[in-house]
Amino acid sequence: MSGGSQARRSETPVIAVDAMGGDHAPGAIVRGAVRAVREHGLRLILVGRSREVAALLAEEGATREIPIAHAEDTLAMNEGALAGWRRPRSSAAVACKLIRQGDAAALVSAGSTGGVVATSTVRLRTQPGVLRAALAVALPTRPMPTILLDAGANADAKPEMLVQFAHLGAAYAQTGYGVADPRVGMLTIGSEPGKGNKLARKAAELLHATAADTSAGAPRLDFRGNIEGHDLLSGEVDVVVTDGFTGNVALKSIEGAVGFAFDTIQEALTSSRLAKAGTLLQRRALRELSERFDSDTYGGAVLLGLNGTVVIAHGASSARGIERACLLAADLAGGRIVDQVRRRLHAPSRPHGWLHRLSHADE
Amino acid sequence: MSGGSQARRSETPVIAVDAMGGDHAPGAIVRGAVRAVREHGLRLILVGRSREVAALLAEEGATREIPIAHAEDTLAMNEGALAGWRRPRSSAAVACKLIRQGDAAALVSAGSTGGVVATSTVRLRTQPGVLRAALAVALPTRPMPTILLDAGANADAKPEMLVQFAHLGAAYAQTGYGVADPRVGMLTIGSEPGKGNKLARKAAELLHATAADTSAGAPRLDFRGNIEGHDLLSGEVDVVVTDGFTGNVALKSIEGAVGFAFDTIQEALTSSRLAKAGTLLQRRALRELSERFDSDTYGGAVLLGLNGTVVIAHGASSARGIERACLLAADLAGGRIVDQVRRRLHAPSRPHGWLHRLSHADE
């Protein structure tokens, strides 16, 4: 491993880990960070109340392995959109400061999604030419996950934003999962062209136009057209774009339905006379299913389009979840996803003006 | 049974069954209709090409049991929104004519949802004071199903429409499932008040205001506030309102996720050394799961708010599915759901003016 660690270390950017965010913080966070350093040779900074964090690092005998950046304040798990402004000294805010100063390239936090999105959007700002940052989640399709975005950052989106989400998602699929030429679909109702609500119909036009644009310098986009809710887990496309309201409803509907299927089957199995054998199979089959939906396995959601990589781990993340989130952040930051997005969305100076204004209009 | 049949017959309205709609039409439709008459004492009229239908009735030895209304034309399964205007002689259109003439109270069709929605909306019109008809589906929660609407009839909805959907859904839960005082929730992102997109935030305000209105004659509405995607199958509410775009995406996401869970578990089971026992349990457990999602079990979607009851069975409906759809239509028409909706949405004369204009504005 040390060889690999060395190799990785040489190219690995520094990741600021929010030690105070999450249901099991700071304990699980620090343990996960230590695993990420020892097993994958990542370079981390733990951000949080230094005495607490130092004590936990000492427990792991890792005092010298991970530096600490002090932050006295923390975001509550129910922290909403105002957190960005209200909590300049929160561990998430201090981590963003490290990124702005160039001391770190990425943030990993298991804090409240709303709070982390607000804090990092306000403190890292969107990249030049990016209208809005979007929250991307990896759905457990095979062989490669399908990236769904926006999963909730922008409840009211504009058609142009969905085109940008397509580029953000494609950059994620390339950098995070090595998909050479990501296939992009748009979530709507009815797979035929012209189906959907006003936003979807207009966005589809723009996506087709963008895909058709082969002029020099135009970023390549492989748009496959409309997909429906039941296609989200079919793996037909690598990236699915939609507005943050629809995306969040779809994601949570899927999670709820899988849990429902789970319980229904469990009932049926344990109520059968074959209950005993059932329990065995159950463990095997249901573990398989749950692991595919376990956020620990995927490392969490990624907020794309900011001047820095932001990975938001599940609030209930275990040490392993934090370890995975750090790995994902390292892959994305190491793959220079921010530069990739800049290349894809590079807007000539004049448009840049209104894009930039628009992108900060209602902040 | 004959006693029950007699009892039912005396109170049962006539249902016009579209013999030509559906993947297995007219065979499965006619067989289902015969079962509905013989086993439940329903009163039906089969609408379609009379020679074909008569021949099938003869095969079942049911020539005298169900009258036939001739319709030379049929809607194609891919028939869209224009069908309403384009196909005045389609079996669905002729069935609507029977309702307008008072010869039938309900329509059952397994034809394309788009075509049946368009045809019946154009030919039956919305009830006075109803802005838009909404498509309602019953999610397989326990002990009672949860009614989700709109499931796709109105891709772009207005906040006032969601308030009406709440009343339509409540009338359905009462008439179709005997829920005395249906609990209504609104589908959005984030359960806290003020979460969601513009439409959801405004609609929630109106729903709270409606629920708070205790003035004489105001229809009672038990609004429980926001629910999220993962609550759709939790049975926390009896009715979930949303716009047709979000509702359709949520419904199909659920269907896709259940299928996905299904396959994942099947894989895991059959790949295990206990495969054999697995197959046994599987059949048991997965049958249980599939039955709960089998549209045949629920009789199909209901288009609410028109001058007549419209039940749209799944396109792949078997004879049993058609039988169930006829039962559902009989329960709804017998329970006078149209009158219930009228009572709930009865609007005083002046408002009625603009409501009515609005409701027919872009038809």
Automatic annotation (TrEMBL), chains A, B:
One of its GO terms (biological process) is phospholipid biosynthetic process. InterPro entries: FA_synthesis (IPR003664), Phospholipid_synth_PlsX-like (IPR012281). The keyword Acyltransferase applies. Pfam families: FA_synthesis. The keyword Transferase applies. It catalyses: a fatty acyl-[ACP] + phosphate = an acyl phosphate + holo-[ACP]. Its main location: cytoplasm. Pathway: Lipid metabolism; phospholipid metabolism. GO terms for molecular function: phosphate:acyl-[acyl carrier protein] acyltransferase activity. Keywords: Acyltransferase, Cytoplasm, Lipid biosynthesis, Lipid metabolism, Phospholipid biosynthesis, Phospholipid metabolism, Transferase. It is an enzyme of class 2 (transferase). It comes from the Bacteria. Its EC number is 2.3.1.274. GO terms for cellular component: cytoplasm. It is found in: Cytoplasm. Catalyzes the reversible formation of acyl-phosphate (acyl-PO(4)) from acyl-[acyl-carrier-protein] (acyl-ACP). This enzyme utilizes acyl-ACP as fatty acyl donor, but not acyl-CoA. Belongs to the PlsX family. Homodimer. Probably interacts with PlsY. This is Phosphate acyltransferase. The lineage of its organism: Bacteria, Bacillati, Actinomycetota, Actinomycetes, Streptosporangiales.
